Request: fold
Amino acid sequence: MYLPLYNVYEKRCVVRISVSKLGFFTVLLPLLAFIMCIILTMYKDFDRANHTHCNVPNIFPSISASIGNYEPQRTIWKTAIYLHAPIRFFIIYLRWKYYREIILDSFAVIVNVAVSLNVIENLSLVGLTYWTSSLNYPFHEVCFKTFIGTSIFYMLMTSILLTQYRRKSHMTRLERNSVKLKWRTFSINVVSFTIAAYFFLRHNRLCEPYVYSMFGFSEYIVVFSNIAFHMTTVYDLERKNIYLSPRGITLE
Reply:
Protein backbone atom coordinates (compact mmCIF):
# COMPACT_ATOMS: atom_id res chain seq x y z
CA MET A 1 0.00 0.00 0.00
CA TYR A 2 2.77 2.43 0.89
CA LEU A 3 5.67 2.98 -1.48
CA PRO A 4 8.35 5.60 -0.80
CA LEU A 5 9.37 7.46 -3.93
CA TYR A 6 12.17 9.89 -4.71
CA ASN A 7 11.05 13.08 -6.37
CA VAL A 8 13.92 14.12 -8.63
CA TYR A 9 12.42 17.56 -9.16
CA GLU A 10 12.08 18.58 -5.53
CA LYS A 11 14.81 16.33 -4.10
CA ARG A 12 12.35 15.26 -1.46
CA CYS A 13 10.74 12.01 -0.40
CA VAL A 14 7.02 11.48 -1.10
CA VAL A 15 4.65 8.63 -0.29
CA ARG A 16 2.30 7.00 -2.79
CA ILE A 17 -0.82 5.24 -1.53
CA SER A 18 -2.99 3.16 -3.83
CA VAL A 19 -6.60 4.30 -3.44
CA SER A 20 -7.95 0.87 -4.36
CA LYS A 21 -5.86 -0.79 -1.65
CA LEU A 22 -6.84 1.88 0.85
CA GLY A 23 -10.50 1.32 -0.02
CA PHE A 24 -10.10 -2.44 0.33
CA PHE A 25 -8.53 -2.00 3.77
CA THR A 26 -11.34 0.34 4.81
CA VAL A 27 -14.05 -2.25 4.18
CA LEU A 28 -11.96 -5.25 5.25
CA LEU A 29 -11.45 -3.97 8.81
CA PRO A 30 -15.15 -3.81 9.83
CA LEU A 31 -15.89 -6.99 7.85
CA LEU A 32 -13.33 -9.04 9.78
CA ALA A 33 -14.44 -7.47 13.07
CA PHE A 34 -18.07 -8.29 12.28
CA ILE A 35 -17.32 -11.93 11.46
CA MET A 36 -15.18 -12.26 14.59
CA CYS A 37 -17.95 -10.83 16.77
CA ILE A 38 -20.52 -13.25 15.35
CA ILE A 39 -18.25 -16.25 15.88
CA LEU A 40 -17.32 -15.24 19.43
CA THR A 41 -20.94 -14.58 20.36
CA MET A 42 -22.09 -17.98 19.09
CA TYR A 43 -19.17 -19.67 20.88
CA LYS A 44 -19.22 -18.02 24.31
CA ASP A 45 -22.54 -16.16 24.66
CA PHE A 46 -24.86 -18.40 22.64
CA ASP A 47 -27.70 -18.80 25.16
CA ARG A 48 -27.79 -15.17 26.31
CA ALA A 49 -27.54 -13.75 22.78
CA ASN A 50 -30.33 -15.96 21.45
CA HIS A 51 -32.70 -15.35 24.34
CA THR A 52 -35.75 -13.19 23.57
CA HIS A 53 -38.98 -12.35 25.35
CA CYS A 54 -40.64 -15.25 23.50
CA ASN A 55 -38.46 -17.88 25.21
CA VAL A 56 -38.23 -19.98 22.05
CA PRO A 57 -35.09 -21.69 20.65
CA ASN A 58 -32.85 -19.79 18.22
CA ILE A 59 -29.46 -20.40 16.62
CA PHE A 60 -28.34 -17.06 15.12
CA PRO A 61 -27.91 -13.98 17.34
CA SER A 62 -28.91 -10.54 16.10
CA ILE A 63 -26.25 -8.08 15.00
CA SER A 64 -26.97 -5.74 17.91
CA ALA A 65 -26.43 -8.53 20.43
CA SER A 66 -23.27 -9.72 18.69
CA ILE A 67 -21.47 -6.39 18.43
CA GLY A 68 -22.75 -4.47 21.44
CA ASN A 69 -23.83 -6.64 24.36
CA TYR A 70 -20.79 -8.67 25.34
CA GLU A 71 -17.03 -8.47 25.73
CA PRO A 72 -14.61 -8.68 24.00
CA GLN A 73 -16.97 -8.39 21.01
CA ARG A 74 -18.02 -4.86 21.91
CA THR A 75 -14.41 -3.68 22.14
CA ILE A 76 -13.43 -5.44 18.90
CA TRP A 77 -16.27 -3.82 16.98
CA LYS A 78 -15.78 -0.34 18.44
CA THR A 79 -12.05 -0.45 17.78
CA ALA A 80 -12.57 -1.45 14.14
CA ILE A 81 -15.21 1.24 13.51
CA TYR A 82 -13.31 4.03 15.25
CA LEU A 83 -10.07 3.13 13.46
CA HIS A 84 -11.57 2.95 9.98
CA ALA A 85 -14.01 5.89 10.27
CA PRO A 86 -11.53 8.73 9.42
CA ILE A 87 -10.24 6.79 6.42
CA ARG A 88 -13.79 6.03 5.34
CA PHE A 89 -14.72 9.70 5.35
CA PHE A 90 -11.64 10.42 3.25
CA ILE A 91 -12.77 7.71 0.80
CA ILE A 92 -16.16 9.44 0.60
CA TYR A 93 -14.35 12.63 -0.42
CA LEU A 94 -12.46 10.72 -3.13
CA ARG A 95 -15.72 9.18 -4.35
CA TRP A 96 -17.27 12.64 -4.55
CA LYS A 97 -14.38 13.84 -6.73
CA TYR A 98 -14.75 10.74 -8.91
CA TYR A 99 -18.49 11.28 -9.34
CA ARG A 100 -17.97 14.94 -10.23
CA GLU A 101 -15.48 13.88 -12.91
CA ILE A 102 -17.64 11.31 -14.68
CA ILE A 103 -21.25 12.45 -14.04
CA LEU A 104 -22.84 15.18 -16.14
CA ASP A 105 -22.65 18.68 -14.66
CA SER A 106 -26.44 19.01 -14.79
CA PHE A 107 -26.67 16.29 -12.10
CA ALA A 108 -24.11 17.88 -9.75
CA VAL A 109 -26.78 18.64 -7.14
CA ILE A 110 -27.95 15.01 -7.13
CA VAL A 111 -24.35 13.87 -6.76
CA ASN A 112 -23.99 16.15 -3.73
CA VAL A 113 -27.21 14.78 -2.22
CA ALA A 114 -26.03 11.19 -2.73
CA VAL A 115 -22.65 11.90 -1.14
CA SER A 116 -24.37 13.69 1.77
CA LEU A 117 -26.43 10.54 2.35
CA ASN A 118 -23.20 8.56 2.40
CA VAL A 119 -21.79 10.92 5.04
CA ILE A 120 -24.92 10.53 7.19
CA GLU A 121 -24.75 6.76 6.71
CA ASN A 122 -21.25 6.65 8.15
CA LEU A 123 -22.07 9.02 11.00
CA SER A 124 -24.98 6.73 11.86
CA LEU A 125 -22.65 3.73 11.83
CA VAL A 126 -20.41 5.46 14.37
CA GLY A 127 -23.51 6.41 16.38
CA LEU A 128 -25.00 2.92 16.57
CA THR A 129 -21.55 1.65 17.57
CA TYR A 130 -21.21 4.20 20.37
CA TRP A 131 -24.79 3.79 21.63
CA THR A 132 -25.18 0.02 21.87
CA SER A 133 -28.60 -1.63 22.11
CA SER A 134 -27.91 -2.81 25.67
CA LEU A 135 -26.74 0.57 26.98
CA ASN A 136 -28.93 3.06 25.10
CA TYR A 137 -31.51 1.34 22.93
CA PRO A 138 -33.48 4.45 21.78
CA PHE A 139 -30.39 6.16 20.32
CA HIS A 140 -29.12 2.86 18.92
CA GLU A 141 -32.45 2.29 17.17
CA VAL A 142 -32.50 5.80 15.65
CA CYS A 143 -28.94 5.42 14.38
CA PHE A 144 -29.66 1.96 12.97
CA LYS A 145 -32.78 3.11 11.09
CA THR A 146 -30.93 6.16 9.77
CA PHE A 147 -28.03 3.96 8.67
CA ILE A 148 -30.34 1.60 6.76
CA GLY A 149 -32.38 4.38 5.13
CA THR A 150 -29.47 6.52 4.00
CA SER A 151 -27.44 3.55 2.77
CA ILE A 152 -30.30 2.24 0.62
CA PHE A 153 -30.98 5.62 -1.00
CA TYR A 154 -27.26 6.28 -1.49
CA MET A 155 -26.80 2.93 -3.23
CA LEU A 156 -29.84 3.52 -5.44
CA MET A 157 -28.90 7.06 -6.44
CA THR A 158 -25.27 6.29 -7.26
CA SER A 159 -26.20 3.17 -9.21
CA ILE A 160 -28.62 5.18 -11.36
CA LEU A 161 -26.17 8.05 -11.85
CA LEU A 162 -23.32 5.76 -12.87
CA THR A 163 -25.56 3.83 -15.24
CA GLN A 164 -27.50 6.58 -16.98
CA TYR A 165 -25.81 9.96 -16.58
CA ARG A 166 -22.12 9.61 -17.38
CA ARG A 167 -20.29 12.21 -19.42
CA LYS A 168 -19.19 9.41 -21.75
CA SER A 169 -21.57 6.58 -22.55
CA HIS A 170 -18.73 4.15 -23.16
CA MET A 171 -17.52 2.29 -20.06
CA THR A 172 -14.34 0.33 -19.54
CA ARG A 173 -14.47 -3.28 -18.41
CA LEU A 174 -13.76 -2.26 -14.81
CA GLU A 175 -16.49 0.38 -14.91
CA ARG A 176 -19.02 -2.12 -16.28
CA ASN A 177 -18.09 -4.62 -13.58
CA SER A 178 -18.41 -1.92 -10.93
CA VAL A 179 -21.88 -0.86 -12.05
CA LYS A 180 -23.03 -4.47 -12.36
CA LEU A 181 -21.85 -5.28 -8.84
CA LYS A 182 -23.48 -2.12 -7.49
CA TRP A 183 -26.88 -3.11 -8.85
CA ARG A 184 -26.55 -6.69 -7.63
CA THR A 185 -25.45 -5.80 -4.12
CA PHE A 186 -28.09 -3.06 -3.89
CA SER A 187 -30.81 -5.56 -4.88
CA ILE A 188 -29.57 -8.13 -2.38
CA ASN A 189 -29.44 -5.45 0.31
CA VAL A 190 -33.03 -4.32 -0.23
CA VAL A 191 -34.42 -7.87 -0.45
CA SER A 192 -32.54 -9.07 2.64
CA PHE A 193 -33.64 -6.01 4.64
CA THR A 194 -37.26 -6.61 3.64
CA ILE A 195 -36.99 -10.25 4.70
CA ALA A 196 -35.34 -9.24 7.98
CA ALA A 197 -38.17 -6.80 8.74
CA TYR A 198 -40.73 -9.52 7.99
CA PHE A 199 -39.09 -12.04 10.32
CA PHE A 200 -38.68 -9.42 13.06
CA LEU A 201 -42.39 -8.53 12.99
CA ARG A 202 -43.40 -12.17 12.75
CA HIS A 203 -41.23 -13.09 15.73
CA ASN A 204 -42.73 -10.34 17.90
CA ARG A 205 -46.26 -11.29 16.91
CA LEU A 206 -46.22 -15.09 16.85
CA CYS A 207 -43.16 -16.11 18.91
CA GLU A 208 -42.28 -19.05 16.68
CA PRO A 209 -39.06 -21.06 17.16
CA TYR A 210 -36.06 -19.99 15.03
CA VAL A 211 -37.88 -17.06 13.42
CA TYR A 212 -35.65 -14.59 15.29
CA SER A 213 -32.67 -16.54 13.95
CA MET A 214 -33.94 -15.96 10.42
CA PHE A 215 -34.14 -12.27 11.27
CA GLY A 216 -30.55 -12.34 12.52
CA PHE A 217 -29.29 -14.21 9.46
CA SER A 218 -31.07 -11.76 7.15
CA GLU A 219 -29.35 -8.94 9.02
CA TYR A 220 -25.99 -10.53 8.24
CA ILE A 221 -26.80 -10.46 4.53
CA VAL A 222 -27.74 -6.78 4.83
CA VAL A 223 -24.31 -6.02 6.30
CA PHE A 224 -22.38 -8.16 3.81
CA SER A 225 -24.17 -6.65 0.81
CA ASN A 226 -23.58 -3.12 2.13
CA ILE A 227 -19.88 -3.84 2.54
CA ALA A 228 -19.72 -5.43 -0.93
CA PHE A 229 -21.33 -2.33 -2.45
CA HIS A 230 -18.72 -0.04 -0.90
CA MET A 231 -15.98 -2.41 -1.97
CA THR A 232 -16.74 -1.50 -5.61
CA THR A 233 -14.68 1.62 -4.88
CA VAL A 234 -11.75 -0.67 -5.67
CA TYR A 235 -12.99 -0.75 -9.29
CA ASP A 236 -13.99 2.92 -9.49
CA LEU A 237 -10.66 4.28 -8.25
CA GLU A 238 -8.48 1.40 -9.41
CA ARG A 239 -5.90 3.58 -11.13
CA LYS A 240 -5.90 6.45 -8.64
CA ASN A 241 -3.05 7.12 -6.22
CA ILE A 242 -2.65 9.52 -3.32
CA TYR A 243 0.68 11.35 -3.14
CA LEU A 244 1.85 12.79 0.18
CA SER A 245 4.63 15.34 0.09
CA PRO A 246 5.70 18.55 1.87
CA ARG A 247 3.64 20.43 -0.72
CA GLY A 248 0.44 18.69 0.38
CA ILE A 249 -1.84 15.85 -0.75
CA THR A 250 -2.54 15.21 -4.42
CA LEU A 251 -4.71 12.63 -6.16
CA GLU A 252 -3.71 11.37 -9.61
